[in-house]
Specification:
By secondary structure, the chain is of the alpha+beta class. Helix content is about 20%, strand content about 10%. Bound molecules: iron/sulfur cluster (2 copies).
């Protein structure tokens, strides 16, 4: 995982370790190698999470929750159609930090 920057402490990813049945699916499907596995899954690199939701969808035990969304993909598409800089609108109210 080199060449990428990650925002620290903003991911909504959560794992309830006591619910984990050790199937390993989250480790398999995560594109950013967020999880490690030692008898049960652990969040090893939470700041790498891009909130795609694949782990939550593939966790049959319901141990993982994450607010999955379209994130920056929506911002890029919006910018293309409006011929402007990418923006998802998250900072429009000036109370939140603009992520784009
Ligand atoms: S997918 Fe869910 S049950 Fe399976 S290892 Fe990951 S957290 Fe545990
Ligand atoms: S939401 Fe996506 S990037 Fe984040 S931990 Fe789950 S599979 Fe990995």
């Amino acid at each position: 995982m080199t060449g990428l920057m990650y925002l620290k402490g903003v991911s909504t990813l959560k794992l309830e370790n006591d619910k984990c049945n050790s199937c390993g699916m989250c480790v398999t499907v995560c594109p950013h190698a967020v999880f490690s596995f030692q008898k049960k899954a652990l969040i090893a690199y939470g700041d790498r999470c891009m909130e795609c939701g694949a782990c939550q969808q593939n966790c049959s035990a319901g141990a993982i929750t994450v607010n999955a969304g379209v994130g920056c993909a929506a911002a890029v598409i919006s910018g293309m159609f409006s011929n402007s800089a990418p923006s998802c609108g998250c900072g429009d109210d000036k109370k939140t930090v603009n992520c784009c």
